[in-house]
Amino acid sequence: MSDQIRQLSARKRTLPQVEPWSVGAAVIAVLVLLPIVAVVYFALTPTENIWPHLMNTTLPRYLGNTVVLMVCVGALAACVGTGAAWLVVMYDFPGRRWLEWALLMPLAVPAYVGAYALVDFLEYAGPVQTALRNMMGWDTAADYWFPAIRTRSAAILVLAASLYPYVYILARAAFREQSGAGFEVARALGAGPLGRFMRVGLPLARPAIAAGVAVVMMETVNDFGTVDYFAVQTLTTGIFSVWLQAGNLGGAAQIACVVLVMIVMLVTLEKISRRKSRFFAAARHLRPVQREPLQGISATGATLACLLPFLAGFVLPVTVLASHAFDAGQWLAPGLTRALWHTVTVGGIAAVLTVVGGVFMVYGVRMSRHRLPALLMPVTAIGYAAPGAVLGLGILVPLAALDNRVADAVLAVTGTDPGLIMTGTAGALVFAYVVRFFAIAQGTADAALGRVAPSLPMAARSLGRTAGGTLRAVHMPLVRASMGSALLLVFVDCVKELPATLLLRPFSYDTLATRVHAKASLENITEAAPAALMITLVGLGAVALLARANK
């Protein structure tokens, strides 16, 4: 009998122990990665392979426009963001204090909203051309020349005006962290303002600038509303065209895979470019940079250089939309009220689930004794890099198939048809938001939990607390502020997300973003203005949070 007991004990010791935190973290990682895997599967197993046809017809145009937009928007955003950051950190000029924060405000205005406002402002019936005709006595468009508005160049300007703050905020932080002693030495050796920027400031800030430009390029690839309004055919618009208009899922998935390859290449190049860039502080307490006061033409030029991006990215679109909104009488329209309610509920649910999932996964990886969750966690960040159209493609088809099977099973058992549970409701939309912005919550949770002293949870565990109890009693009170910030950032991104929302929303289910797109596509800026201003007001909350965190 004793031998049997010993054998049973040895067998129990050899059986793998199931760790709930490890299993939970692995399940979350798999759910986040499933849409990407589904897209790759659809691309490799198309019902009708139209890849040769795409290669010979539309794909070169889609790819060419996308690459041109990425490169041009990235370069313009890098110049504007880096230049503005250098001026506000290194020099003192009129308006610097408020411009330092005003330069962040274009982040609150989605690029597609800026596109609608720019066209309305510069089109034939807009205030600019109307004023020119009145001043010069012109009667028709044949009497004068005015540049075309809905072009690829205009799309580049709109996207750069909306996205340059990503470069600005990272470059400003990098310049502020540099030692003033280095610039003093460069000045003593005869380097002028341009020399100090090119030889000292820019090389040290290059990793931060490269990271900001990478984010700008990824957001450019993700954009749908701007390029669709300006009739610029990109890979993202191609996914919509091939899938929804041509009805070819495999072809759309193949285009989506091209987008994924571009994103992976972009992220890889960004990491390689700064792989050997290692900069360390020479002293524990760096001497802060002493701003150089500017006077005369230099001061005026610096003020104008920082003012123009703010005017183009925030003041112009908000002013144009406000002029329509206050004349519209549409603030209490039933459609707007429903869109606001849908946006708040879906975005709020997605934000809560995303933050809870991010905390659970990071904590689960820390508690796990297995390597798999730790290996999967970095890969889950790909959802943020994947455009919304790609995620929509990878989510809608599998969920629709699952919905139909579940509905058939329930109908066979109960005789009642439950309908489509996920794709017939906003469930698919919530899932897409969670996957798309999971990296924000995961990164914030990882950084916040990493700042908790290990002795605190160890003391809690020694006093009999379980892993979950330690998370609730020790970690959460210490990281509450950081997770609240992540909750707000995810919610704001959900409010602004357009491509995934267009693909996954149920019929007659509008959000603020889809309402703005629908009304603006019909050239009805008046009815689109209230919803666009609501999106901007929500975005200002995130901008205020970023400004507070980067004081």
- The CATH H-level homologous superfamily of the largest domain: MetI-like
Distance between the termini: 71 Å
Largest sheet: 2 strands, parallel
Can you write the helix and strand succession as a string? HHHHEHHHHHHHHHEHHHHHHHHHHHH
Quick one: how many beta strands?
2
CATH topology of the largest domain: MetI-like fold
CATH class type of the largest domain: Mainly Alpha
Q: What is the CATH architecture descriptor of the largest domain?
A: Orthogonal Bundle
Q: Total helix count?
A: 25
Strand content: under 5%
Segments where pLDDT lies below 50 for 5+ residues? 280-284
Task: Name the features.
single chain, 551 residues, mainly alpha, MetI-like fold, 2 domains, two-stranded parallel ribbon, 25 helices, 2 strands, 76% helix
Detailed description of the structure:
- It contains 25 helices and 2 strands.
- Helices cover 76% and strands 1% of the residues.
- The chain has a two-stranded parallel sheet with strand order 1-2.
- It is mainly alpha-helical.
- It has 2 domains: 19-36 and 345-487, MetI-like fold (Orthogonal Bundle), CATH 1.10.3720.10; 50-276 and 301-315, MetI-like fold (Orthogonal Bundle), CATH 1.10.3720.10.
Give the gist of this structure.
The protein has helices at residues 2-14, 20-44, 51-56, 59-90, 96-102, 111-122, 127-136, 152-176, 180-188, 193-222, 225-229, 235-245, 249-273, 296-328, 334-367, 372-379, 382-385, 388-414, 427-436, 438-450, 455-462, 467-496, 499-504, 512-521, 525-549; strands spanning 91-92, 292-293. With 551 residues, it is an all-alpha fold.
Helix and strand topology:
Layout: H1 2-14, H2 20-44, H3 51-56, H4 59-90, E1 91-92, H5 96-102, H6 111-122, H7 127-136, H8 152-176, H9 180-188, H10 193-222, H11 225-229, H12 235-245, H13 249-273, E2 292-293, H14 296-328, H15 334-367, H16 372-379, H17 382-385, H18 388-414, H19 427-436, H20 438-450, H21 455-462, H22 467-496, H23 499-504, H24 512-521, H25 525-549
Parallel strand pairs: 1-2
